[in-house]
Automatic annotation (TrEMBL):
Transmembrane residue ranges: 29-47, 59-80, 96-115, 121-144, 156-177, 189-211, 257-278, 298-317, 324-342, 348-369, 381-403, 415-434
Residues of the Major facilitator superfamily (MFS) profile domain: 29-439
Listed name of the protein: MFS transporter
Signal sequence, renumbered to the chain: none
Amino acid sequence: MSTTDRDVGAVEKDDRLVRSGVRRAGRRLVPLLILLYFVNYLDRVNIGFAGPNGMNQELGLSATMFGVASGVFFIGYLILEVPSNLMLHRFGARRWIARILVTWGIVATAIAFVPNATWLVVLRFLLGVAEAGFFPGIILYLTYWFPGKQRARMTAWFMTAIPVSTALGAVVSSLIIEYTHGLFGLSGWRVMFLIEGIPSVLLAVAVWFLLTDRPGQATWMPKEESDALERALDAERSETATAGPGSVAGALRSGRVLALSWVYFGIVYGLYALGFFLPTIVKGFAAQFGTSFSTVEQGLITAIPYVVGLVVMVVWTRRSANPTVRVAVPALVGGIAIPVALYLSNPWLAIVAVTICACGVLAALPGFWSLPTAYLTGAAAAAGIGLINSLGNLSGFVAPYVTGALSDATGSNKAGLWVVGAAMVSAALVTWLLRRTRKAPS
């Protein structure tokens, strides 16, 4: 056998070992990450179910104040996002994510006992501080385990937790609110915060024992597979290092990072506007269309867009290979769909339009994270991903505040949802403009 044949054989063997290692790691790690994000996202948006089901009335919240309480979370998130991601890069995902889980669980549970609007705002801010670094930390963690070719698919599976938590969470939260009212002498919405805050503390124990920082530390993976996976990831990091900034400061100053922050802002603007206000919109069908739904029925209707969006997210990520198309097309479709919902004369047609918007948001998100991770590596990746996520998630403050303020000013949700559409369309346009300067991942 010639030297060339031996080299080709070695490469083919390495490819087989990498694929086998990716499958093994996916089965071991991704279900746990999905569960973590399920609990994380539910704790973040369950205020949307509490608001129209007793909290706003009990605490005397206007639509604007509800928007402030919903969105102030992201101010705390912004302040500590980059430092938290750098700590994860330094100390390892297992230790840092376990710490995040414990602190956010304590704060999330404490919200059950808020006496007034001021304390609600304070605890929502502290919840953002506690959760800072979780999501970008997971995105960074995936770069430690999965090469670029497989990472978009794994990211999509991880992010299925968004529609699952919103769809299942809508039903579960509604059931808790309706059937536990009076438990421990608390209103139903308070019991919901209590019950949904505890699991994150328990999951911190699972993370401490089950999460593995790097393939080379995985005692549950054959050494041949972990070595091949480390070689593939090292080669990818070396290539990526020549395409983007090599330092934390370079990542924070990068024009591409700032542009990607705007793209993410526009996409998640739609996500959070729907997450925080869709339950209120569905409850408003009674006045708009003369319909009447129970709390549980409202939860089931709220779940519809996310159930459909879950399927579209997975299928779109598998079918669309071009990163620009993967992000720009669904963002554009979702941005156009949401204003259409405002002018339909039937609640079910309105839900169809909202569902298309949700599908656009959810389909764009996994593909989006393939853009910065193809450009950033090492500490620069930790800083850049953290900055993109923190600036992008400012929409979590802006969206509910603007939507609530416009609702108070106009007596309608229409103006606020027009802004949602404009933000998503702008994200699609910026993604398209970035295509000429993007170094395509291998």
